[in-house]
Every structure is written in structure tokens, then in C-alpha cells.
Amino acid sequence: MTRSRQLGTLAAACAAQFMLVLDMTIVNVALPSIQAALGVTAGNLQWVINAYVLVIAALILVAGTLGDRFGRRRLLLAGLVIFTAASSACALSSDDPQLIAFRAVQGLGAALLAPLALAILADAFPPERRSSAIGIWAAVGGIGFGAGPIVGGALIAAFDWSAIFWVNVPMGLAGIALTLAFVRESRDPAARPLDLPGAALSAAGLFCLTFGLIQTERHAWDSAPTLTYLGAAAVLLTAFVAREAAAREPMLPLAYFRRPRFAVANLAFACLYGGLAITLFYVSLFFQNVRDWSALRTGVSWIALNVPFLAASLLAGRLQRRYGRGRVVVAGTALAGVGTAGFGLLTAGSGFAVALPFYVLDGLGFGLAAPAISVMAVAAVGSERAGLASGVLNTSRQVGAVVGLAAFGSLGATIARSRWEDHAATLPAGVRGRAAELAPVVAGGQGDAAVGRLAPDQGDAVAAAFASGMRAAVVAAGALILLSAVLAALPPRGAAVARDAQAVGGGSAVS
Description:
Shape: globular
CATH class of the largest domain: Mainly Alpha
Number of strands: 0
Order of helices and strands: HHHHHHHHHHHHHHHHHHHH
Number of helices: 20
CATH topology of the largest domain: Growth Hormone, Chain: A
Structural class: mainly alpha
Strand content: under 5%
Number of domains: 2
Largest sheet: none
CATH architecture of the largest domain: Up-down Bundle
Radius of gyration: 22 Å
């Protein structure tokens, strides 16, 4: 492949990545505006995010397999078309059920884009230049991550929440043009056939798990609805693992997870993006609903995370070559864990100065870890399995985001609701019952709605209850990321690595 075509391929992959990451952060900063404009409940507000990432998590492995089998360029184009069309439909939604449904369709397009862009890069660039190309790809994602809140805030200030979806249309058209002009078709000659039963089991299991966790906003953890959904999730996901272990051509090759570095890469990605999802969700609501910031001001504040993210992403390839991928992963996840947990120091009266150090730590950590983990996962199985490897890795990321947002969001809502109910019990009898009924509204960060139905002097208590839930959620997420850093620091046994590499076949068992 000529250098100009390699650069064009990199531009196409970066366009897809930029659009995906921009969409993630631009939607988060718009959540309060969507909540106010469409009257969305706290539970359905999570589904504006979860409908998107749940579809990605359920279908991303299928997309990687389809790309390896039928052509990565072809599937990338299909993903760009679906994502662009669904973005237009989201912008035209008139209520939250419509928006959630079209977000799910948008997730279908994203499921095709997420694994294939990385696989196309692995095919286009030789091993000696692949780390740098992936570093640039990750850095462009960092730019999208940083631009999302700022662009979203500016668009909401100038227009309304629908503009955050319209902005995807010109980017999607540009990505289609670049792909048609530069990307060559590539396949895996030994691609696995589709595992439809496995896909159905994993999708149903993830849905039940996410739905059960989110429903704890309305039902107790030990209630029949919660236990039914979580029990069904356990059965379905266990059946999925059993299916994959027995299948001759599994959708998820469990043997890859016997490679220590591949397993660590997926675990770290899941923990990182679970923490990122809940941080974006809560910090956006905190500054806009508790501190009364505008969407634009909230978006601009994320520059403190995005600039370190971009700088670290650009340096990640060089640092990997000098110190090794494993060390960079450990350093990145440790910094991200401390940064995520640090947001737990925010109180209802905290300003930006309290959050600033943790924005920076989070940005540095993610910027170091994300490209290093991506390279580690692909290298562990070889470039000929890049579609499947990147599909598994991106599945881990999306599952981490879905389950992290649902689980940590449920924890935060439970703590906030409990704190508010304790406060409501101290109020005069005439308002006690009405205050207790507002617990879900308070837990969802809708402080103005709660105060409007009570009295202005309850504003501080409402903010304090929401902040207590936020602190519990981000501290738990940060602790899980730090655990993944500890596991990444454990040295793999060389003999086991070599044996597992031979058992799986092909690729280099790198650390």
C-alpha cells in the first residue's frame, strides 16, 4: 500500500473514531437539556446512553466477525451510513421513547464502526509503524472526546439539544467519502462463521443485567423484579460462556483469554470505560443541575481533562517503545483510577478548583492507557485476527460502559435516595410524605423540580443528597480501575504465555 493511501486510510479510521467519541461526550453534556426539554425521568435518562452502548456491546463481536469474513471496508461503510441516518432520526425525536429507540439504531452503526476502524489500521500499516498509527488514531479520539462537551455546549446555547445529533451528519458524509477513496478491502481468510445462538445469549444476558441494575431506581435490590432480571442475566450469560466453550467456531474465543496480556487488556478497558461513563454522567449533571452552570461552561471545563488526554495519547507510542506496553498500561490505569475516585471529594458547594486536579489525572491516565491497551490486545493475537481481537476489546469497553453506568449509577441513586429519605423524615408532617415521594427526582439530579414542589430552603438538602450519591459512584468506579492496575502489574509466567500462544495459534504473546 502506498504511503498516500495509508494516510488516507488513517484519515478514514480517524474520522470514524472522532465521530464515535464525540457522540459519547456530546450527548453526556446535553443530558440536562434533554431531560428538561422532553421531561425524561432519571431512569430513562440513563437509557439515552445505555440504549446506544448496550446495542454496541451486544453486536460488536458479530460486527468484527462479519468484517473479517465479508470485508471490513464494506461493513465500515454500512456502519457510517447507519450511524449518520440514525443521528438525523435522533435529532427529529419528539419524546424520550423515540429518542431511546433511535439511539439503539445509532448503536448498531457504532457497533460496525468500533472494531473495524482498528482492524483496518492493523491491515494498512506494517508492524513497525502500527503503534504510531494507532497512537494517532487514539489521539484523534481524544480530540473528539475533548471537542464533544465544548461543541455540545456551544450548539445547545445557539440552538437546542437536537443540534448535538445533527452535527454527526457532515462528519458521517466525510467518513463515507474517505472510505470510498482510500480504504482497501481486507478480510481474514480463516474467518470464523457467525455464532447466532451465542450472539442472542450475550445480547439477552447483557440486556437483563443492565435493565435489572437500572430498575433498582424504582425497586429495592432484593425485590422480585430486580432479582428476576439479575437472575435471568446470570443464567443467560452462564449459558453464553458454556456455548462459547463448546462451540467449534465460537463468537468469543475463550482460549484468547488464557493469554495473560489479552485478558488484562480487556479487563482494564472494561474498568476504564465503566469509570469514564459514570464520571461523565454524574459530573455533567453535578455542574449543570447542582452548580447551575450552562452546558457551554460545563463543556469548556472538560478541556482540563482533554488536553492531558491528547498529550498523553501522542506520547503513548514512544513511551511504549521505551518502557514496554505493560508498564504504560499500569501507569495509565493507576492515574485514571486516582483521578476517577478523586471526584469523590466534590461536595454540593465545590467549585472547579476542587475538580481540576482530577480532570488532569483522568486525562493523563486515559491518554496513556487507551492506545497501549489497544496495541497490546491486537499484538497478543496477531494482525490476521485484528478484527476479532479489536471486536473483543471494544466489546469489553462497551460492556464496561453499560454495566459501569448501570451498576455505579444504581449505587449512586441508592445512596442519594437513602440520604434524602433520612432528611425527609425530619421535615414537618405536612410535607414529609411529599418529600419522600421526590426521592427518585432528587437521586436523578433534578434539583429544581424537587425544590419547586417543596420550598426554596430545601435546595441545599437536595444538592447534598445528590452529591452523596455521586461521590459513592465515582469512588467505587475509581477503586475498580485501581484494581485493574494492580492486576496489570502482575508479571505473566513466560512458559504459560508461550504455551497459550501456541494453543491459540498465530500471533505473538507480547507483554
